[in-house]
C-alpha cells in the first residue's frame, strides 16, 4: 500500500474511528460485489460513518485528496450503482451505521430517519404510531431508505401513493466538499426558491450523500381486497385498469401484470406456489384495493370484476377469501426475480411508458425482439398501473460473458428505440447506475444532458461522487 493510501486511511480513521473502517480483504468483499453478482470491483477502504458530522469529515477529506467515493446503502440495487470499479482507488462510503429513526410525528404525519435505516424498519415504526409508510418492494428487508431515495425507488404502491420522490418532504445532505445542507423541513408547502430536495432524490449518489430524510406518513389501511384475473391481451387489462380507477378511485393500490410466460417461469422455479386460476391465460393481473374503512371493500372489488367478466373484458377471476390466499398471490409476483436468476441470465429493461402506449409497445417489441433473437424467451411483467414494465429477455444460464454483453447491447437498442418513439423512459425505478449509463447518453437530448453535466460540475467539481455511474 502506497504512503498516500496510508495517509488517507489514517485521516479517515481519525474521522470515524477504528470501528468505522473495514480494511481486511475478506470483509471488504461483501461491499465490493453487488447482490446479483453482476458487478465486482475493488476498494481502498470501506468507511462506515456513525453520524452526519463523521460523514461530512469523510467527504471533506476525499474532496481535498480528490479521492473517488461510492455511496452504498443496503447493496440491493439492480443497476450496479453502488459497486466500485476495479482500480482499487475508490472509497466505499457505507451508510449502514446511520440507522436511527430520529422522530415520528403522527400529528404532522411524518417520520424522520437516517439514511441507513432498513425500509422494513421504517414501515414498522410507522405502524407502531398507527400510521402507514407505503413504499414497498421486494428488498424491503435489507434495502435502506437512503438508497431508496437516491434511486427514486418505485415498488408496488406507486399507483396510489407515488414513488420515493413523492414520499419525502425534507433531506439532510452532505455535499462533496463536506458542507452539510440542512433541508429537513417537514412542510407540504415551501416556495422559497429552487427545490433542492428533488435535485438529490434520484441522483444516485453523484451529487451528494443523503444522510437523513423527513418522510410522509399516511392513514393506516385496515382493510384490503385482492384478486387475480386472467385476460387475453394487454389491451384488455388496460381497459380494466381504466374501469377500476373510475369505480374504485384511490382505493386501487396495485395493478400488477404478469405474462403467461412469466407465470410459467415462476411456477417452475419458485417453491410452494401454484397457479391461481385453473386455466392459463396470455396475461394475468394481480389487483388490490385498500381502505381505512373495511365496510364494502370486498363487495366493491367483486362487483367491479364481475362486470368485467360478464362483459368479456377478462376471462377468469378469483377473489382472495383469506389473508393466506392474498399472501400466496403476492408470493407469485414477488418470486419473479428469484425465478429469473435460477432459470437464466436476464437482459433487463426497466421501462416506463404512457399507459395508453403499452399495448402497441408490447406488440411491436415482441416482434422486434424475436426478429433480432429468434426463439427469444420474453419475460414481461410489471406495474401496469403506473406504466412501468420489466420487459426482460432470458438467455441460457451457460451464456458466456461475451455473448451476454453482445446480446444485451443488441436488445437494448431494439427495445429502447421503441420506448423512445413512444416518449417513454429507459429507467423507471431501478436507476441508471452502470447498467444504463451509456444508454442514457444515447437517448437524452443534448440540452438535457448538458444541464445535468453543469449541475454535476457545480456541486462536484473534483468529480469524486460515484464516478462511472449515471453520467
Protein model, in words:
- With 471 residues, this protein is of the alpha+beta class.
- Among the domains are: 101-219, Uridine Diphospho-n-acetylenolpyruvylglucosamine Reductase, domain 3; 223-337, Alpha-Beta Plaits; 344-430, Alpha-Beta Plaits (2-Layer Sandwich), CATH 3.30.70.
- 38% of the residues lie in helices and 21% in strands.
- Strands 12, 13, 14, 15, 16, 17, 18 and 19 form an eight-stranded antiparallel sheet that branches. The chain has a five-stranded antiparallel sheet with strand order 5-6-10-8-9. A four-stranded mixed sheet has the order 1-2-4-3, sandwiched between helices.
- A hairpin with a 4-residue loop joins strand 18 (377-383) and strand 19 (388-395).
- Helix 1 runs antiparallel to helix 3.
- The chain starts with a helix and ends in a 12-residue tail after the last helix.
- The mean pLDDT is 95.
